[in-house]
Amino acid sequence: DVKVTQSSRYLVKRTGEKVFLECVQDMDHENMFWYRQDPGLGLRLIYFSYDVKMKEKGDIPEGYSVSREKKERFSLILESASTNQTSMYLCASSLSGRRTGELFFGEGSRLTVL
Amino acid sequence: GQSLEQPSEVTAVEGAIVQINCTYQTSGFYGLSWYQQHDGGAPTFLSYNALDGLEETGRFSSFLSRSDSYGYLLLQELQMKDSASYFCAVRDLSNQAGTALIFGKGTTLSVSS
């Protein structure tokens, strides 16, 4: 089974702190994604990567950056956390090609910024 | 831009059949996916339709009409454990080869006994 592992299930940070959310997948997937999920807003794409060191902005990239130095690992960075970044963050991965419609998600990281 | 519309809530009783609709507006189209998410859990993949028609997987079926920009998820013989949120999603053709998925806001299904 594909496993997508997010390093922290729950985090509490202070405004202005730098926050790292880590995600690792074990199935050699080319694509990796970061979404945030808020009540009533569904899943919104922050950034994604289709290859090592390659990244593209999603719908809401402001205030975030990403890093993909190895194929299995995709990190989301909040340079200076703000209260409006309090959310559930979901990492996902997928194969390329037709199977791109099938994402495998991690369990999520719930971030609270005080 | 791209957008997806689905009902926010649906209620049903055990044993019933429920249909969750999804209409989409896209500049191009590769396929429509459906995901299930239980409270506190991760979204899990249910189905993917790239061609018109109905695809069945056990109690769940998914339908696509590309000419109508419309699809639905059909859940039969509802069980309490089907209470969850259901999301439709399309591949975003504005980015690298339609790699990323754009999700609807989700439909909360409540199944009662």
Element string of chain A (H = helix, E = strand) = EEEEEEEEEEE
Largest sheet of chain A: 7 strands, mixed
Q: Poorly predicted ranges of chain A (pLDDT <50, ≥5 residues)?
A: none
* End-to-end CA span of chain A: 37 Å
Radius of gyration of chain B: 14 Å
Give the % helix of chain A.
under 10%
Number of helices of chain A: 0
Helicity level of chain B: under 10%
Kindly report the average pLDDT value of chain A: 93
Quick structural summary:
The complex is a heterodimer of chains A (114) and B (113). In chain A, 0% of the residues lie in helices and 56% in strands.
Secondary structure topology:
The complex is a heterodimer of chains A (114) and B (113).
Chain A: E1 4-6, E2 10-13, E3 19-25, E4 31-38, E5 42-51, E6 54-57, E7 64-70, E8 73-78, E9 87-94, E10 104-105, E11 109-113
Parallel strand pairs in A: 2-11
Antiparallel strand pairs in A: 1-3, 3-8, 4-5, 4-9, 5-6, 7-8, 9-10, 9-11
Chain B: E1 3-5, E2 9-13, E3 18-25, E4 32-37, E5 44-49, E6 53-57, E7 60-65, E8 70-75, E9 84-91, E10 101-103, E11 107-112
Parallel strand pairs in B: 2-11
Antiparallel strand pairs in B: 1-3, 3-8, 4-5, 4-9, 6-7, 7-8, 9-10, 9-11
Q: Could you explain the architecture of this structure?
A:
The complex is a heterodimer of chains A (114) and B (113). Chain A has 114 residues and is mainly β. Chain A is built from no helices and eleven strands. The model of chain A has no long low-confidence stretch (mean pLDDT 93). In chain B, the strands form two sheets. In chain B, strands 2, 4, 5, 9, 10 and 11 form a six-stranded mixed beta sheet that branches. A five-stranded antiparallel beta sheet of chain B has the order 1-3-8-7-6, with no helix packed on it. Chain B has 113 residues and is mainly β. Chains A and B meet through strand 4, strand 5 and strand 10 of A and strand 4, strand 5, strand 9 and strand 10 of B.
